[in-house]
């Protein structure tokens, strides 16, 4: 326990913290450089944690009240624990990804083997050292989490004693037209940068199996009626995005970027709508903050803009629903009531999880009606929306052929919601910390209002946003873990409708912190908060953009590259050669051969390995694949098999590989694009 009678040398300790974190940062950089792969940019996240703790270590704003006389001890504990935990966790990641593969008898790369030989430790020693390190990391992790929890609790307690109504003001002070113009210029310039990056890298990566089979496969050469029948039969998703994609599919030329442009445009529109919602909630400054945070979101870029699936629509219309709900809370005119109903219809027809968040809107309005805070005419929104949404669900239940009692998603753990919220905030540690601070501030404001029995429509809107996320995630968790684990539907991207709420709550935290600081300090002692916010945006933006671009420029499921390989192999067009695609066969042919204008090989068999369904035989495309199947033995009539392995499990694939190895010899193998060539 800290001796309160001892005068601790704060400057010396702060210097120690800076030095300690600098050493930790160098260690993390080195470890990340060694362990980095195409899907990982953890270095930026770790540096963000360190930057945050360094700021906390030197903070002089008087916001964090420690339980101790000198808070430097608390800062040292938080900083040291978090830094050591990060270092040791990186060591474990290094071990799991690389050395464990060697110890288990795998084939390491030359670089990893050289490092392993350099260390030259017995396997038992290495395993023991790593396990001991994990125990130490766990201890430091507990210290770090407890300390951060203490900081947040003390922070909430310190501000809850002050009148906090000014935090909910739509605009704390009148902004000049010049200031507003600058806010909009910088905010929309950042959005323009995001748009340029999304369009620039939109063709960097091949479509993967879900985009081919479950999107392009459902719209290519289909009428609206055909699309409707397929979606109802499969119970797969709502139709709005597929209808829109079906319109542009025959109009645009080949190229991933052309199809992805639909999602990119709707991500941009959704961010602009979110800006207006933030302005409605807290004025021009809050709109600017929310616009900046949304414009550096890697999850909006990757999951919204760079996925040929409905998530951009889902995000955009969730933001629109939120905007009209807030507008209707403040003004129950018929324009807002009808606007809210249209927004709900668009949201529900974008993704089937949209209906869940609409349930919480209805529950919120029921609460307000019982408390006599809204008029009964607000029910018109739900009557109109329900009349248009419910028929689809009724038709689906009457038509669906899929087994709705089972699903592919795994059973979630109890701590999964934390991971989910962090993922929706671009898996960025600093943004997640800002969100946690916002929740602490919001809790303090709510406690004050409950005790004073004051009604504040803005506070209700903020709490409704927070609770909608809690409701949606908790309901899915309870269903997937306890009610129907075999039919678990807990998938992070299904919560994409919560991105607007989480971004707005984070923006509220930043604005509230700024207002608290301005309220606590005299004008001449106030720090330059614009510079701090600019630093936050630059650091987080570099991290998020780098993470997103690294992911989109790496090979994931390279169907495009596989098609190019097949096209360049002259034997692929011979009668005695068959191309086998583990998945995505029909859609793969449709997009990467027909749409691209390439010749289709004479024989292509595709499916989830067994049964293989012939899609092309002797140059004839077979549309009705349900009538055709191929046993492994029938492949023996071909002298050459070009196998494109994508999105198939090892257990499913093993009998097929055993058959090929027993009857053919490998003559070419390109692991980067998952192509193996077998010949007799």
Overview of this protein structure:
This protein has 680 residues and is mainly alpha-helical. The chain is 65% helix and 5% strand. The protein has helices at 10-35, 42-57, 72-103, 110-119, 123-160, 177-200, 209-219, 224-234, 240-248, 256-295, 298-305, 311-330, 334-348, 354-370, 379-399, 416-424, 429-452, 457-483, 499-520, 529-552, 559-568, 585-595, 650-663; strands at 577-581, 604-606, 613-617, 620-621, 640-644, 665-670, 675-679. A 7-stranded mixed β-sheet has the order 4-3-2-1-5-7-6. A hairpin with a 6-residue loop joins strand 2 and strand 3. Helix 1 (10-35) runs antiparallel to helix 2 and helix 7 (209-219) packs across helix 22 (585-595).
Descriptors for this entry?
mainly alpha; 7 strands; 65% helix; elongated
Short description:
This protein is mainly alpha-helical and 680 residues long. Helix content is 65%, strand content 5%.
